[in-house]
Specification:
This protein has 71 residues and is α+β, with helices and mostly antiparallel strands. It has one helix at 49-58, and strands spanning 4-10, 28-31, 36-39, 43-45, 64-70. The structure holds iron/sulfur cluster.
Length: 71
Amino acid sequence: MANEKVEVILDTHKCQGYGLCLGADDVFDLDSSVNIARLKTRFVDVSRLGEIEQIARDCPANAISCRVVQE
Ligand code: SF4
């Protein structure tokens, strides 16, 4: 049975640097030189799907999405 993970997808072209995603600071980071978010990790445990979906909904720039993938 494959292990499911959540792939976090960040569109750096849409990101406006609002920083709301930094609540999950093990996943997101803000590059202060350009004020654009970056991913510290691309895959997180599937148990965090709801959390990542909420962060994606809360992003004012709609720059975050996610999908469940098989490892
Ligand atoms: S919440 Fe969205 S717009 Fe704000 S820093 Fe994160 S990805 Fe960028």
